[in-house]
Amino acid sequence: MSPAHVLEPTYRRLKNALLEGRFQAGAKLEAMRLADDFGVSMTPVRDSLNQLVGEGLVDLTPGEGFRVPLLTEQALRDILQVNALLLTEAPDTDSKSLQIDEASSDTQGAYADRLAHVFRGIAANSGNRFRVHLVERISDRLHPLRELEPEIWPGASHALEQIERTAQQGFDSSTRAVRAYHQHIEDLVPALVGRLNQQTA
């Protein structure tokens, strides 16, 4: 196992690159090449890749090595349906309103980060830590795709603001806005997957 002072920055750098969509979907992630790029040995790179496999951000196939996961239309629909269930079937065990930070700018990156933040807050109000963990993993997995949503859906920012506003009023209020968001994104699945593949090709 790599020392923490080497592993943590290597892991963070690699995870950020994956979240930002810097690698083509399906691309092989070669530990030696990444180690050269990062200026570290292969051990922290391999440790980081294995950790990211556990988080669903990297695929590992015996005999083939590490790859960036491919996101098919069906896989995206499956993920969206699970995310919607986690967020709309979560009992509100915490009566306090959610504190949602207002972003100072409406950049694409801010949109994806704000969406992840509000979804995590809704999940956290259930009092179920594993639900929060799953919602966070889904947000990481969909981050590159969510950055594309405002390009494809002109109403994306308005939908996000609606979710943020209703989440502050509690679980019951946010459910309708969360469901509407997921239904609209499901309609956009072909366009989103096509745009993601085009961007990483």
Average predicted local confidence, pLDDT = 87
Low-confidence runs: 101-108
Helices and strands: which structural class? mainly alpha
Strand order of the largest sheet: 1-3-2
Task: Give an overview in words.
The chain has 201 residues and is mainly alpha-helical. The protein is 66% helix and 4% strand. The chain contains 10 helices and 3 strands; from the N terminus they run H-E-H-H-E-E-H-H-H-H-H-H-H. It has helices spanning 4-19, 31-38, 42-54, 73-88, 108-124, 129-146, 149-152, 156-167, 171-187, 189-200; strands at residues 28-29, 59-61, 65-67. It has a 3-stranded antiparallel beta sheet with strand order 1-3-2. A hairpin with a 3-residue loop joins strand 2 (59-61) and strand 3 (65-67). Helix 4 packs antiparallel against helix 9. It is globular and about 50 Å long. Residues 101-108 have low confidence and may be disordered.
